[in-house]
């Protein structure tokens, strides 16, 4: 083994000591911490900046929505009232009962041997139902049969335009009288009648087009 | 105290001062700003959603009124056809206008009552009795048709027709109707 003498040992020791200098190590540590803190600050500043932007956007949105909301509040009340009024108005118009067409249909269904002498009727807008009393005289060889034919014909005629049509003789109202009238040279007996007529103005539901086929 | 110790003490003071500046002057206001913004956002969020839902609801109400267009036309018609002032002044004349062309010079009309219409705030519900002493049935039909077409909101609620014993072709007619007046 060769003898080795390190003539630079003092220089080496000094360099070694310089490399492990606590002040230098502490300075490096502080620099790392300072970098981390600066990075954290930038990150925080960015996050807060975004939050502030969001807040400003929301404030702008709110300030633009506020007048719209106040208007909408007022409009909602007005529109709700107006909607109710409109519904009533349209319902009143749609649910009207027109007497003139009814009188025309009634006139068409009165046969020549029958005379209606009195009509008394009421229309109830609540239940949407018309109730009438028709009094009259029927003449013929069998005046009761004439009166019955009128009643049936009336129910059929009105049934084409209205629903729930009911035409019935009032209790004990169909009675023959002593009166005899002359019509086209014939002596005809007469009968008084009083018909209670009731119907609703809605048209009757259409009949199904085809009956359901029975299963075998 | 040697130089090195002095130096370390100075560095320690500088580092402490640095931390103080960092946390209290830099991060402190930032945190306060963030808390303020967060508080405002928390406060504004329900307000904005409430406003948006209210606006949407109002739009929905407006869109749900399917009768609006038809009713608007009707309102315009009512406004133009129902004059202001007492109905006693103009309604009898309007009735006469329906019956006069059909050979009835005059109808007797009487106001039964007039009260605020609970469904139309700006209008009143007016009820009238009408009597015609003598009218042929065809003329009655035409006159009633004209009346019902002309007076869009009038509704005849009672009708009484009696044949006159002396004139078999003529009738005595009475009817009651309700309508809307201003």
Task: Give a brief rundown of this model.
Chain A is an alpha+beta fold.
Structural class of chain A: alpha+beta
Mean pLDDT of chain B equals 89
Counting structural domains of chain B, the number is 2
Give the radius of gyration of chain B: 41 Å
Approximate shape of chain B: rod-shaped
Give me the number of helical elements of chain A.
Answer: 4
Low-pLDDT residue intervals, each spanning 5 or more residues of chain B: none
**From the structure provided, what is the oligomeric state, counting identical versus distinct chains?**
heterodimer
DSSP summary, beta strand count of chain A? 5
Inertia-based shape of chain A: rod-shaped
Portion in beta strands of chain A = 25-35%
Strand order of the largest sheet of chain B: 1-2-4-3
CATH topology term of the largest domain in chain B: Alpha-Beta Plaits
Helical stretch count of chain B?
4
CATH superfamily of the largest domain in chain B: Ribosomal protein S6/Translation elongation factor EF1B
Main pleated-sheet profile of chain B: 4 strands, antiparallel
Q: Which bin fits the share of residues in helices of chain A?
A: 40-55%
- The average pLDDT value of chain A, as a whole number, equals 87
Layout: helices, strands, pairs:
The complex is a heterodimer of chains A (216) and B (182).
Chain A: H1 9-19, H2 22-94, H3 99-108, E1 114-124, E2 129-140, H4 143-159, E3 163-169, E4 175-183, E5 186-200
Antiparallel strand pairs in A: 1-2, 2-5, 3-5, 4-5
Chain B: H1 3-64, H2 68-81, H3 87-99, E1 108-116, E2 124-136, H4 137-150, E3 155-163, E4 170-181
Antiparallel strand pairs in B: 1-2, 2-4, 3-4
What does this molecule look like?
The complex is a heterodimer of chains A (216) and B (182). In chain A, strand 4 and strand 5 (186-200) form a beta hairpin. Chain A is rod-shaped. Chain A contains four helices and five strands; from the N terminus they run αααββαβββ. Chain A has helices spanning 9-19, 22-94, 99-108, 143-159, and strands spanning 114-124, 129-140, 163-169, 175-183, 186-200. The longest helix of chain A is centred in the first third of the chain and has 73 residues, at 22-94. Mean pLDDT of chain A is 87; it is low at 212-216. In chain A, strands 1, 2, 3, 4 and 5 form a five-stranded antiparallel β-sheet that branches. In chain A, 51% of the residues lie in helices and 25% in strands. With 216 residues, chain A is α+β, with helices and mostly antiparallel strands. With 182 residues, chain B is an alpha+beta fold. Chain B folds into two domains: 1-64; 83-181, Ribosomal protein S6/Translation elongation factor EF1B (Alpha-Beta Plaits), CATH 3.30.70. Helix content of chain B is 57%, strand content 24%. Chain B contains four helices and four strands, in the order H-H-H-E-E-H-E-E. Chain B has helices spanning 3-64, 68-81, 87-99, 137-150, and strands spanning 108-116, 124-136, 155-163, 170-181. Chain B has a four-stranded antiparallel β-sheet with strand order 1-2-4-3. In chain B, a hairpin with a 7-residue loop joins strand 1 and strand 2. At the A-B interface, helix 2, helix 3 and strand 1 of A face helix 1, helix 2, helix 4 and strand 3 of B. Strand 1 (114-124) of chain A pairs antiparallel with strand 3 of chain B.
């Amino acid at each position: 083994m060769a003898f080795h003498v390190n003539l630079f040992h003092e220089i080496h020791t000094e360099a070694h000591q310089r490399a492990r200098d606590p002040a230098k190590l502490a300075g490096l540590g502080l620099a790392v911490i300072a970098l981390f803190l600066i990075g954290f600050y930038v990150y925080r500043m960015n996050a807060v900046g975004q939050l502030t932007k969001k807040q400003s956007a929301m404030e702008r949105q709110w300030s633009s929505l506020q007048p719209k909301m106040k208007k909408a509040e007022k409009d909602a009340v007005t529109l709700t009232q107006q909607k109710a009024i409109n519904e009533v108005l349209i319902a009143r118009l749609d649910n009207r009962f027109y007497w003139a067409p009814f009188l025309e249909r009634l006139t068409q269904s009165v046969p020549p041997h029958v005379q209606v002498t009195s009509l008394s009727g009421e229309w109830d807008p609540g239940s949407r139902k018309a109730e009438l009393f028709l009094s009259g005289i029927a003449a013929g060889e069998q005046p009761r049969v004439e009166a019955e034919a009128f009643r049936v014909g009336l129910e059929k005629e009105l049934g084409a335009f209205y629903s729930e049509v009911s035409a019935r003789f009032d209790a004990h109202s169909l009675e023959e009288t002593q009166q005899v009238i002359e019509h086209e040279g014939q002596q005809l007996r007469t009968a008084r009648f009083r018909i209670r007529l009731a119907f609703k103005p809605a048209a009757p539901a259409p009949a199904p087009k085809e009956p359901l086929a029975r299963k075998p | 105290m040697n130089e090195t110790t002095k130096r370390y003490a100075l560095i320690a003071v500088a580092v402490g001062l640095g931390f103080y500046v960092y946390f209290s002057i830099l991060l402190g206001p930032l945190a306060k700003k963030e808390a303020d913004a967060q508080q405002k956002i928390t406060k504004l969020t329900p307000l904005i959603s409430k406003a948006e839902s209210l606006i949407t609801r109002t739009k929905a109400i407006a869109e749900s009124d399917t009768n609006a267009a038809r009713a608007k036309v009707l309102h315009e018609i009512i406004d133009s056809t129902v004059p202001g002032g007492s109905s006693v002044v103009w309604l009898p004349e309007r009735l006469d206008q329906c019956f006069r062309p059909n050979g009835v010079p005059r109808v007797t009309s009487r106001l039964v009552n007039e009260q605020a219409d609970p469904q139309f705030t700006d209008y009143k519900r007016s009820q009238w009795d009408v009597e015609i002493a003598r009218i042929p049935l065809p003329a009655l039909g035409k006159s009633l048709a004209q009346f019902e077409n002309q007076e869009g909101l009038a509704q005849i609620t009672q009708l009484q027709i009696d044949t006159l014993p002396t004139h078999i072709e003529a009738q005595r007619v009475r009817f009651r109707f309700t309508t809307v007046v201003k």
